[in-house]
Recover the amino acids of this structure.
């Protein structure tokens, strides 16, 4: 089956898969598009595969179960959001920061305070 990709993404809530794959637009650091800020940590390559039929929201001890279809949708949003933001940050860094740019992929939105 071949399905077209969505043409619009609406970032209306938090997205999570498994224990740590997570994206929430309001948790993005205000200085993300700067030379000093690291990039976002990339999720595991197997999210959306049916292996993680749950999410563990930040700072909660409970897991929330969901279907494989929901896992795939959440994974799509997480991977797309993180990929687009890192790509945009790299574009900025490559044009404005020179050798001083922080290229480490180490920001985990899951671990940032509310």
């Amino acid at each position: 089956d071949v399905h077209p990709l969505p043409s619009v993404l609406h970032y209306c809530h938090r997205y999570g898969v498994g224990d740590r794959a997570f994206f929430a637009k309001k948790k993005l650091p205000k200085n993300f598009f700067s030379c000093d800020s690291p990039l976002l940590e990339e999720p595991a390559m197997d999210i959306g595969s049916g292996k993680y039929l749950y999410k563990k929201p930040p700072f909660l001890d409970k897991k929330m179960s969901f279907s494989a279809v929901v896992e795939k949708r959440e994974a799509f949003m997480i991977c797309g959001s993180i990929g687009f933001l890192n790509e945009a940050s790299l574009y900025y860094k490559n044009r404005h920061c020179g050798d001083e740019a922080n290229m480490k992929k180490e920001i985990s939105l899951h671990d940032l305070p509310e």
